[in-house]
Fold each of these.
Amino acid sequence: MSKWVIGVIGGSGLYEIDGLEGTEEITVDTPWGAPSDTLIKGHVGDVEFVFLPRHGKGHRLTPSTVPYRANIDALKRLGCTDVLSISACGSLQEQYAPGEFVMVDQFIDRTFAREKTFFGPGMVAHVSVAEPICSRLSALAGDAAKAAGATVHTGGTYLAMEGPQFSSRAESHLYRQWNCDVIGMTNMPEAKLAREAELPYATIAMVTDYDCWRADEAHVEVTNVLEVMAANTAKAKTTVAQLAAVLQGTPRTPSPQGIETCLDYAMITAPEARDSSMLAKLDAVAGRVLGS
C-alpha cells in the first residue's frame, strides 16, 4: 500500500472534524449491524480520511452499546489503512494533567458486556495483541498533537472499564497499583477488533480529569469533564489537520509490527470445518486471507 486512508474514531466531545474537502456521507451496512452513525469521507490534499463519531451524533450510545464490531468492519469496508482513536479519559497519575494528551501503548481490558471478536464457532482465530498500538501511527499522531499545541506524553497504559459509571475510589487506587496511567470506557474491545481486521491502530487519550484517587480534590463530575473536553476537542481537530500535513507526500509503508498480515498464522479452524455463514460475515475484515 502507498496511500493513506485514515479512519478517525471520535470519542466524547468530538462529533466532527474540520477541513475535509470533497466530503460525502456514507451509510454502511455490515454483517454486525449498523455502525454508530453515518461515516464522513473526505480528503486533505492526497490524504483520505473517514470519520466516525463513536457515540453517534448527539452522543446517543453508551460505552457498552457502541457497536464496536460494526464500526471497525465499516472502516475496513471503506478502505481505511489505519485507525486513529481520539478518546476522552481520566488520569491515574499526577504527571498527566487535565488538558494534556497521552499516546498510550498498552491496555488492560476490564470490560465484560461487549462482543470482543469477529471470529467464533465455525471460524476460530487467535491474534496477538502483545503490542496493541501501531508505534508508527502513534508517533505520527503524537507529533501532530504537539504541532497543534498540546502537551503530549509518549507511552502509557490505558485501563478500559465497563462504565457508564465512573470508578469508585477503591477501584481508582487499585488501578494505580497496577501502574495504569489513564482510564477510559471505549478503547476496548475496539483495539482488539482493529487488530483482527489487520488495521494499525493508535490512541490519543485526552485527559479530562484526575478520576477520584486524589484525596485533596473533588471526585469527577460530568460538568467538570465537559469544560476540559471543549478545549481538548479544539486541539483534537487541529491535530487531525496537522496529521494530514505530516502525511502529505509521504508514501505509506507497512506497520513495524506487521499488523497488516497478522491473520496469516491466526486461523485455527481447518478449511473443511469452516462455517460458510461465518466466512461470509468476515468478507471485509478477513477477506485477504479467506479469499473473499
Amino acid sequence: MHNFIIQAIEQGGYIGIVVLMALENIFPPIPSEVIMGLGGVLVAQGRMQFWPLLICGTIGSTLGNYAWFWAGDTWGYQRLRPFIERRGRWLTLEWEDVERATAFFLKHGQWTVFFARFLPVFRTMVSLPAGLAHMGKPTFLLYTFCGAAIWNTFLITAGSMLADAEQVLGWIVGGIIVLTAAGYLWRFITWKPRAER
C-alpha cells in the first residue's frame, strides 16, 4: 500500500503535496504523518528535495487550517452552530465540542495555535475556536505556519530515516491508515447528539 501512495505523491509533485496537506487539515483523507513521512522516503531516494517538500507541505497545512479559521471568523457562532448540528455525524463533532475547544483556547491564549500543531486531531480543531475568537489573521497564519513547519520537519526526517526499512515502513503506514479509518468509522457509527444520550 505504501508503494502505491509513494507513487501517487511523486506523480502529484509538490503541488500535489500542497493539495493533500490542505485536504488533510479540512477533512483527513490521508493523515499528514503518511503524506510527509512518505515524502521523506522520496527525499532519501533523491526523488524529491527536502526544502521544497517542507515548504509545500507547510503551505498546505496552513491553508487547510485557515479554512476552519475562516469559517469561525466569518460565520461566527450563530451561523456555524446550525451547520455543525446538521453535519455533526459526518464531522464526528458536536457544538459542545466546539464550545469546549473555544474555552480552552480562550484560557490558554493564542500560543495554543502553535503548540496544537504537535497534537493529533486538536491541531486542526484549534483553528475553529481561533476564528470564533477573531484571533488576528497574521498571528494565526504565523503560528500555524511555524508550528506546521516544525512538525513537518520531524515527519520528513523520520520518513528519510526509515527509507531503508521497507518492511517496517509498510507496517507503520498501513497501521496509521487503518487506525485513522477505524477511528473515524467508530466515531461516525457510535455518534449520538448529547440530547439523545
Amino acid sequence: MPRKCRKCQRPAVINMRQHKLALCADHFQEWVVNQTERFIKKYRMFTHDDRVLVAVSGGKDSLALWDVLLQLGYQVDGLYLGLGIDGGFGYSDESRAMCQAFAEKHPETTLHVLDIPTTYGESIPEMAARTRRGKGKPCSVCGLVKRHEMNRIAHDLGYHVLATGHNLDDEVAVLFQNTLNWQVGYLARQAPVLPESPGFARKVKPFCRFYERETATYAIVRGIDYVYDECPFAEGATTIYYKELLNRLEADKPGAKLHFYLAFLKARETLFAHWQEEHVELHPCENCGQPTSAPGLCTFCRLLPEEVRPRVRHAQPIMVKSML
C-alpha cells in the first residue's frame, strides 16, 4: 500500500524509516528547511550576519544546500571550481552549466567561477600526470587544489564561512574508514564545524545529518537540475566501498548510520576533550600568502610550475549574476 503523508494524508514522496516518517512533497521540503535551520543553530555554524560561501559542484547536495540557505534568508553565494575533468562527456562543463543555471534562477545570489585550466594552465588530471602525486591519480591533487582555492577565495572575497554539501552518507563513510584505521587526528577533527583560525575560514556542513536519498529527493521535488553522474575518477574509491557496506547495514537496521554518527559526536566530546594536536608552526606561503607548515612554499604552490606560481596571488573568480 502506498505511503501517505503523516501531516496531510496526501501521497508521500519519501518514507524515512529511521524517523518513522513519510511526507508529501510540500511537507518534505518544509521539513528539510526546518531541520537545516535546527542543525545550523545546534552546532552554531553561522548567523544571518555572516557571509556564507557554498562550494558547489553541480551535484544534488551542494545545489540543494545553496537553495535551502537562500530560503532561510542567509547571505549566501556559490563558488564553482572548474577542474577540467572530462571523463568522455564533459563532466566539468556539465557541472558548471548546472551551477550557472541555478544562479540565473536566483537573482538574489552570485556564483563565483574559477576555471583551474584557464587560470593555472593545466587541468587536474594533467597536474596529476605531470607530478605523479598520488601515483598519478587525480584524486589527491584534486583535494589539494580544492582545499587551497576554496579557502583562498573565501578569504580574499571577505566571506566568514565556507559551507560544503557533505551529507550523512559521506560523513559516516569517512568516520568508518578513520575508525577502522584509528586515525586519531582525523577523528578528533571530524565535526559539523571546523572553527576558523588565522588564515583559515570556518568550515561547516549543514547537511551532515541528512541521508543522501533525502538530499536527492529534495532536489527532485524542488525542480533543481543537477549532475547525476559521479566524477569519472571516483570509480573504485575506498569511500564508495565503505558506503556500499554501510548501505547493507542500513537496509537491515534503519537508522544505523545516523545513530553511528550521532553517537560518535557525543562520545567525541569526552574522548578528545584533552587531546591536543601536535603543534605545528604556520607561516605565510612565500608565493600565495596562505598559511602553511612547509618551508617557503605551500604544497599547492609547489605543485605548480615555477613560471605559473605568480598567478596565484591575482587569481580571482568571475562572477555570474542572473540576467533576469
Amino acid sequence: MADIPFDKRDGFIWFNGELIPWADAKIHVLTHGLHYGSAVFEGCRAYSGEIFKLREHSERLVNSADILGFKIPYSVDEIDEACRAALKAQKLVDGYVRPIAWRGSEAMGVSAQKNKINFAVAAWEWPSYFDPEQRKKGIRLDIAQYKRPSPETAPSHAKAAGLYMICTISKHAAEAKGYADAMMLDYRGYVAEATGANIFFVKDGVIHTPIADCFLNGITRQTVIGLAEKRGYELIERHIMPEELTTFSECFITGSAAEVTPVGEIGPHRFTPGKITATLFDDYIATVRRDIRVHASA
C-alpha cells in the first residue's frame, strides 16, 4: 500500500459534506490553495479505531483558518465527525487522518475574498513516519539551510500549507545526504524544530525544549510535556543556541506522525537514546492507548 500513489488508491474521502470515491476527490488546477498556499491542515493518528486528541486538532484547524482569514463552513463537532467518518470508511483501526481546508477556484489572483472554502478528510495506513531500523538507534538529522520565519513575517502559529515549503526543501536536502530529516533554526539563530516535529534535549537529567514562539506548539509536544511533568522530570522551555548541542546527552522529536522518536545525531553532534527518551516513548504509547480505551467505554 505504501508504494501506491495517493491518487491511485481505493476507498473514500470525506469531501465537502459527503463521502465520495477516493478517485473522485479532485480540484481544479486553478485552485487558490495550490497557487497561493491558502490552505490549512491537520495530521492526526488513530489508535484502535479512535483518533487521539481529535478535538484539539479540529479546534486548531479552525484557528489556523481564522489566522489565514477564512472560515471553515463546518463546526468543530462536524469536523470531528467527518474525521471519524473518513477513518471508518477506510476500515482503519490504526492510521493517519488528514483534514484540510482551502480556498477554491472561483477567482484567481492574490485576492480571493469570494472564493469558496472547501473541506476534505482523507485517512490512510501509516505505520511509522521514519524507517523502523533507523528509529531504534536514533534517527540522523541534518541542519537545515532555511530558518523558521519571524511571526512578524509569516503566520507561524497556523498549521498553514505554505509554511511547509521550506520544510520540504530542507527534508529533501537532508535525505540526499543520507539523513532522515533536518533540524531548523529560527530567524534569530536559535534551535527551533525538525521539518515536521518539535524537538527536545536532555542534559544531566533535565529536559530542555525550545520556546514555541515562532513555530507550532505541537499537540504531541504538549502531551509529552505533560507526561514529563507527571514523571517529575524537570523541564525547561528556553531559547537554545546550536553550539549547545554538544552538551546534551539525549535528543528526541515529537509529532502526531513521528510520535516520540529518538535522535542519534544532528550534523556533527551525537546523542545516545537513553532512559528519559525511552520512558517518555513508553508513556506516550500507553497514553494514546489508554485514551482510546476511555473513549471506547464512554
